Write a sequence for this structure.
């Protein structure tokens, strides 16, 4: 892959990652509730799900998913249902004293796998990568190094963007000291999860 092609891919990755989606909603929700540092496990979970999407496409399963309505519908509705469930949970989320978050009670493992499942069950990401990645592949060169480079680039960009989203959300926390304001924020993020589920359902 030439430096020019990689640069174009890098710019495309930045634009795609900055565009709000289910992953960004998940990250902002965690950043608002727990802060940037305690959001890292969830961000890493998102990258695991995204990495799985890259691998699926790289080994050709993306083509199977796009051609098989059975598997596509199964994965799509699992993702839709999961996002709705996350939205409801966020609406019912109890008040958190952000300044006194107890690291021992943050349940990093649960939020890691929760975030991974958000990206892993997003068929829109699979279909998009199937259409997107081949545009940057040089068929005259070995494909595995190219897919590896694109995967590393995509994950790095998305990690940095998600850290930015978590930081932005954390900056909002100074205005969310009261239980009432935090409840409004939880309902906003919960609604965003449900809207993301709706967009996935009609995709």
């Amino acid at each position: 892959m030439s430096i020019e092609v990689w640069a174009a891919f890098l710019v495309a990755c930045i634009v795609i990652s900055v565009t709000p989606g289910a992953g960004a909603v998940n990250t902002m929700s965690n950043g608002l509730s727990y802060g940037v540092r305690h959001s890292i496990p969830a961000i890493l979970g998102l990258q695991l799900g995204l990495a799985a999407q890259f691998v699926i496409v790289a080994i050709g399963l993306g083509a199977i998913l796009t051609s098989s309505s059975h598997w596509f519908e199964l994965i799509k509705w699992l993702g839709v249902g999961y996002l709705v469930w996350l939205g409801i949970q966020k609406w019912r989320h109890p008040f958190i004293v952000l300044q006194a978050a107890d690291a021992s009670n943050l349940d990093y493992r649960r939020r890691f796998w929760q975030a991974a499942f958000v990206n892993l069950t997003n068929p829109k990401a699979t279909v998009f990568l199937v259409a997107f990645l081949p545009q940057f592949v040089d068929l005259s060169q070995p494909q595995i190094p190219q897919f590896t480079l694109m995967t590393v680039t995509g994950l790095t960009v998305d990690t940095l963007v998600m850290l930015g989203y978590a930081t932005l959300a954390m900056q909002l926390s100074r205005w969310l000291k009261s239980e009432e304001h935090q409840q409004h924020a939880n309902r906003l993020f919960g609604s965003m999860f449900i809207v993301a589920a709706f967009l996935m359902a009609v995709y």
Summary: The first helix runs from residue 3 to 18. Residues 3-8+21-202 form one domain. DSSP finds nine helices and no strands in the chain.
